[in-house]
Amino acid sequence: MNKITLFCFLAFCLTAKSFSQSSDKWTFISHPDWHTGDGELRDQGPRDLTNQHKILGDMASFNPEFLLLTGDMVGGNWLSDEYWQKYAPGGSLEDLVTTCGEICYNGINLRFREFGFNRLIGCLGDHELGDQNWDPDSRKSNAVKYFKEAFSRAYTLDSAGNSLYDGFIGQIPQRPVATPYEHTSNAFIHKNVMVVTIDIYTFESPSERLDSVRGTVSLDITGDHYKWLDNVLSAGNQIDSVDFIVVQCHHPVLLPIRKHQTSHITVLNEENSNLWKLLRKHEVDLYYAGEVHALTPSVDEGNGIIQIVHGSFLGSPTHNYLVAEVEKGRLTLLSREKVIENEYQYKTTGKLVIDKRSGKKEVSGSGALEPIDRKGLLIHYSFDDYLAGQRIANTGAFGPNLYYGTGEGIEAVDGVFGQALEFRANSYTKSFGLNPFHADMEGLQIADNRWHHLAVSFPGEGHTLKDISFFVDGKEYSHDFTGRQSMNTDPGGFIILGAANNLQSDRFSGSMDDVGLWSSQLTGTMIEALYIEGISRNGLHHEK
After folding, report:
1. Would you say the pTM of this structure is higher than 0.90?
2. For domain 26-367, which CATH number applies: 3.60.21.10, 3.40.50.720, 3.40.50.1010, 2.60.40.10?
3. In terms of Cα–Cα distance, which of 73, 63, 48, 161 is closest to 116?
């Protein structure tokens, strides 16, 4: 194999430095889902880097002391026969991944260096491992080891192959030494913040299936890797000068989250994962994630951990990154987002503060960084302001930027609360939910030219059709559904109103008004209250 040269970055302080002056302030930045690395492989000539330079210049203006790259820096689609012939002719799978990794990571890192970013803290994402999924004995599964090695050479090893994280946090090694994750998970202390980077991709062998969906890769931590994280978080909490513990891992845990053009992979078992149980145990302050190309701040009600899902590929209309301003006992996050969808100009759109100066943790957020109500009304279409051909506004907690509706063949008519939408045989809106009521539901007759209140209450992932409750005009509708197949929502699917997912079948003809989607299961009492409110305010059963 040809000798390669990779740019490595300086190791961080191995123990906590004194940081006691309240006037001291420093910054760091986080940007998941950079997604530009594979351009180095595809492009044959000079690249137009104008837009990349604009975002790099905006980030550099904050003078950050390091940059967190929380996964998916590259596309990772390196295993094609075309690339093999081009970059490793006659070579091995290891040669191919090594060469592609050198080209992609060097391209990214050199560009950051041009703007003064000499301290990059890389974190594995699924694209660093070739992108999901990893079928047993596939080319991709056989390459997992080499993918991780290519990443390590770029971000956690020096040019001689020595780890940049060979110190200690208290008495605990900065990395899980003698485990398969010793060069991909690590921890360091910079001034009054401890940062922990997690390789969430548990992998045993190219043949061993660990996950029914993902294949040979399972998204949680186990064994000695788990023990190391437990110990290093405990050690960090015992260092008086450490005010904040920040964990970066590519995949979200807390749901719901906004998402855009994504397969929406979460940590296995989410809040019940081994990872999250440890973060709760040690009262971690911040959890940084990416993956879904949109910004969602949320708080774990049981422990107060703040999860910030953020970042996106540069061409996305949802492109954003975070600035962290750190003082003694106080950490302020600022969200930076595009001002105009197709222009690379950025402004601060939100602020979140973690303040411990009083001796207890106080959290406040505003704008784009106001934590969402994880059990509240996420999507609400009143239809009151809809004009033909324009967006259908979402006034729910998820806001108008991603979860607006786009209509086809619909018309505004009088509704129960102001304006409604009338659907015909060939009309639908793309961004809200399926009509759950079909003619096959024996005994249910609502096509009577009157307004009715309909609701569906879903217990959550893994339940079957028989577990779903239907309500008509505030009363539960008895059904005989006995399906045993689990009903799991499609995380990458659109939300459709007025037709089935393929937009061709089960068309709805009639009018709809005031549609809402909650992120928690509504009880029968709550649904009846919504119906009664409609009756009292507007007389629900008037002629339509």
Report:
1. no
2. 3.60.21.10
3. 63
